[in-house]
Amino acid sequence: MTPKLVADIEPPYYTAVFTSVRPDAPEDYAETAARMDELAREMPGFLGHESARTPGGIGITVAYFRDLESLDAWRVHSEHRAAKAHGREHWYDSYSVHIGKVERSYSFERE
Predict the structure, then answer these.
(1) Transmembrane stretches, by residue range (predicted)?
(2) 35, 48, 53, 25: which is closest to 107 by C-alpha?
(3) Which sign, positive or negative, has the C-alpha torsion 54, 24, 17, 8?
(4) Which domains does the chain have, with CATH numbers?
(5) pLDDT tens by residue, 57-108
(6) What is the full DSSP assignment across 26-95?
């Protein structure tokens, strides 16, 4: 299966870029990640996300939101907050979050 990128979103929109360092397979991470994916997809204004992880443990997830209000609603969602706290305590060696406004966007896909 070919991965599908998030594309064709009309700007402006916002991104939350989450970059992390963690061990390869921490306990209960996959289940929590699946639940966060499910919750995010239910959030008004959520446009999609993309993730990648290196064999060395660096991960990057970019989530796309229609507006800052949608992004903030995700940031303070009770289950998401609990997952973040659990991650700080059990999974991540370090992480950073960058919020940005996208004013121009384009994509390419080979046919």
Answers:
(1) none
(2) 48
(3) positive
(4) 13-102 (3.30.70.100)
(5) 899 999 999 999 999 999 999 999 999 999 999 999 999 999 999 999 999 9
(6) -TTHHHHHHHHHHHHHHSTTEEEEEEEE-TTSEEEEEEEESSHHHHHHHHH-HHHHHHHHHHHHHT-SEE
pLDDT digits 0-9 by tens, 11-40: 999 999 999 998 777 788 889 999 999 999
Contact 43, 78 (CB under 8 A): no
Pick from 77, 79, 1: nearest CA to 33:
79
